[in-house]
Amino acid sequence: MELTQLGERTWYVPGHVNIGYYEEDGQGYLIDSGLDDEQGRKLLKLLREERGVPLRAIVNTHSNADHIGANAFIQKRTGCEVWTTLIEGLLTEKPSLEPTMLWSARPFKEIRGKFIEAKPSKVTFIQPDGPIMDTALTAVPLPGHYFDMIGVTTPDGVFFLADALFDPSILAKYRFSVMLDVGAAYATLDKIAAAEAEWFVPCHAKPTNDITELVRQNKEGLAWITEAVFGALADSPLTREEILAKVALANGLEMDAAHLLLNLTSVSAHLTYLSEQTRVEPFVQDCRLLWRRKNDE
């Protein structure tokens, strides 16, 4: 684990999730915290050895477990605050809601691991757009991937992009990316493409000075999923589970229970997007919710 400087007061820690770090007036701020206690322990050791200033707050971009999983450990050790937006904050304080939403009921143990359900931490709510508390950090709404996700910009011209886009190798390997609102995701990618920054730092891709190509690749990835979902309905109406299975088997994808439910969320988002384009429609038959192409009988 290492601290890599991107600006006068801005760093990031490369990893499975790139974690941001910023200093102002002798205090430190993390942008996301990582997956678990071990990540938190390593982060605090690194910051103590490399910077040696008190940690005031963790700014969480959103509430996925790999972004908030070290909050509780760090908060307990340092007394720092956790800042995030309202909906993401509710999920951060009550992370059992995450698997509950995936299963639509009290979740079974196979979907309650640390990759889905983080430890709870105490949150101070912030606005999703504009200055973050009394700092020079700025929140930028980046909806699509999750409910109330934000990016964070620093005065050094560094733009932390949360999970608004992914490395092409991730898109190629998993095909599906967690998505709640496909239309909003496209708008977010357009916003990022038009943004000016010295550095763009996605959580799941390498920092870059030019985000244009990565935006293009992520738009292609979104479009691929949409068309794969639409294509699955070419021969007959299907349930969303059948759509996922058809696409996954055709592309050699394997999933455990948690990943299957996450991918079902993405299928649902793309079905909503297709229905808004009047390309597909839902109907109930034999007590099953089926989807068909709009003009199919």
Class per helix and strand makeup: alpha/beta
Our measurement of the CA-to-CA distance between the termini, rounded to an integer number of angstroms, reads 57 Å
The residue ranges in which pLDDT falls below 50 over 5 or more consecutive positions are: none
Q: Give the percentage of residues in beta strands.
A: 15-25%
Helix content: 25-40%
Per DSSP E runs of 2 or more residues, the count of β-strands stands at 14
Shape: globular
Concise synopsis of the structure shown:
With 297 residues, the chain is an alpha/beta fold. The chain has helices spanning 37-50, 65-68, 71-78, 86-93, 97-103, 168-174, 182-194, 212-232, 240-250, 257-276, and strands spanning 4-5, 10-13, 19-24, 27-31, 55-59, 81-84, 124-125, 130-131, 138-141, 150-153, 158-160, 199-201, 280-285, 288-293.
Draw up the topology in text:
Elements (H helix, E strand, L loop, with lengths): L3 E2 L4 E4 L5 E6 L2 E5 L5 H14 L4 E5 L5 H4 L2 H8 L2 E4 L1 H8 L3 H7 L20 E2 L4 E2 L6 E4 L8 E4 L4 E3 L7 H7 L7 H13 L4 E3 L10 H21 L7 H11 L6 H20 L3 E6 L2 E6 L4
Parallel strand pairs: 4-5, 5-6, 6-7, 11-12
Antiparallel strand pairs: 1-2, 2-3, 3-4, 8-9, 9-10, 10-11, 13-14
Give an overview in words.
With 297 residues, the chain is of the alpha/beta class. 38% of the residues lie in helices and 19% in strands. It has ten helices and 14 strands. The chain has a seven-stranded mixed beta sheet. A five-stranded mixed beta sheet has the order 8-9-10-11-12, with no helix packed on it. Strand 13 and strand 14 (288-293) form a beta hairpin. Helix 1 (37-50) crosses helix 3, helix 7 packs antiparallel against helix 8 and helix 8 (212-232) packs across helix 10 (257-276). The longest helix has 21 residues, at 212-232. The N and C termini lie far apart (57 Å). 44% of the residues are buried. The model has no long low-confidence stretch (mean pLDDT 97).
